[in-house]
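Section handout 9: paired folding examples.
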Amino acid sequence: MDQNNINEAVLPLENFIAYRLNQAAEKVSQRFAVEYKKRHGMTRPEWRTLATIGQFGNITAKQICQHSSMHKTKVSRAIFTLEQRRWLKRTVDQNDRRVEHLELTLQGQKAYLELSDVARNFQDQIYSALGPSNAAALETSLEAIETLIDPQ
């Protein structure tokens, strides 16, 4: 392959959609992490685990992994930490003793509701900065990509 063909074959990573989406998601996640870290000293897996349990009310660790795309080790550690904070309780499944159902305690619900408000405000700030038409275009584009990549 000669130099001209190599130059034409070069893929600038910063122009590749998967890279750009990942970079944007990481920047937004890191910025929001400041909020839950400042308020509760939480890690990203702890926040995502808390948010997932809060969203569904009663859920298993395996379901958290599936919903949040986190590895079971990270979810397990987050569950342990949230339990140490007394933010969640485990109940053994009566039909399968290997399965535990997770629910937020009253303290956990309080933290979840507080952080949910913070998350909504954070998202509103981003959408406001984008403006209505760009925010709508972003939502439409994300939905289109999600459907294209994982049609269900």
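Moving on to protein 2 of 2.
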Amino acid sequence: MNNPVSELYNNQRTLFGRGSLQKLLPLLAAEPQPTLLFCGHSFLRSAHYAEMKETLSTHILAYEIVSHEASPADIDGWVARWRGQVKRVVAIGGGSVIDAAKAFSAMMQHPLPVARYLEKVGDTAVEALTLPLIAVPTTAGTGSEVTQNAVVTDQQEIQVKASLRHPLFVPSVAILDPDLLRGTPDTVLASCAIDAFTHLFEAYLSKKGNFFTRQLAISGMQQFIRAWPALNRMDDAGDAAREAMMMASWLGGVSLSSAGLGVIHGIAGELGAIKPFHHGEVCGRLLFPFLQQLAQSEHPEQQQLMQELYSQLFGRSALNPALALHDWLQQQAIVAFWQGGPHLSEEEKEWVLQRANSKNSLREYGYEEMKQMLVTGWPD
């Protein structure tokens, strides 16, 4: 294919499996040091926290609540509050929690405000310095526990959604416990899962991809296909589905770090700079019209890759694999998250389109094609 050499960024240690959260307390006890916990309100209300609260409190200084995608002001505030007091960070939550903890861990070792180091708007390179971080995802979607970037969002001042990025920013430890997904609302399960699929799918179709990265992506999408229809079942099939989706999410993080993303994220990243929409839902709303466009593509490499992918995922061929995949995803979804929902004004659509890009797509997508994706995802 186009790119013969791949780089793989990974955790120093990954613990995977149902009940693996139980490994957290021994990890903290083995190396006592001042530790700050980042988490969300949902974790503090959970049975998991109730079971470990007493012991966990002996290993942490305090906790910071992350209720939205962290802004530069949030991160700078946390750093100012804790600089010189914290030696290790634990993040238990979804992608926003883990990204916030990754950014905080890095900025604790850097002197300037975080915006100075951000892609798109920064003017200073990050250094290979960060605090050790233990990441425990409670959703399966972003793969942030295994990526080298921390997403920072400012929807008020500079209106940007950008990454703080360095290979050293991959969390040193990831604990992947599928039981943490049990009881998650259907809309969250589905929106996060389609984010994982989009990471895998765009990495698979990336112009930076090769045999290595595509095999990783295919493996993740196979786990996604196994999991997608049964994510909310409260039985053995549901437990197996959530385990498979946790694996798909992790592989999505590995894949995007190795091969990059495409036009869906080229649009979604700009939309996230101005609207507080769930990132996974945004990706899903853009994925479906992208598949419709892909169904009409005459690009030979896209056609070949789609035929190969459909065969790998479903064990058979399809006359139009992009349309067949589109229909299967919608028919098997546990909730139709792409229907109804938030509104985008014409002015907001235009703002996004003026800044969107095709990233690592195999071909460039023009203004009208990206506009069609936005209009289909958010009809008037």
